[in-house]
Predict the structure.
Amino acid sequence: MTDWVRLTVVTPGARIPADLVEHLFERFYRGPEARASHRGHGLGLPLARHIARLHGGDVRCVSGPDEDARFELALPAWRALTGQ
């Protein structure tokens, strides 16, 4: 059984429609709200997911469309090797 380290980030007031959730992990994608009110290039979530997956984890949206936007980073817990 693998132990996991989890980090959750919440953006109060931000809502993500269900049909846009997976698009958020596409490079350079920016949702309508982000395009209208925030600067950026649409790389943060795709890069975070890519790096997490390289380490055996993932980043995913864990909120519903009527909740504050919430993302979870999950990584396998590090364990020291014994007997070396």
About this structure: The first helix runs from residue 32 to 37. The mean pLDDT is 86.
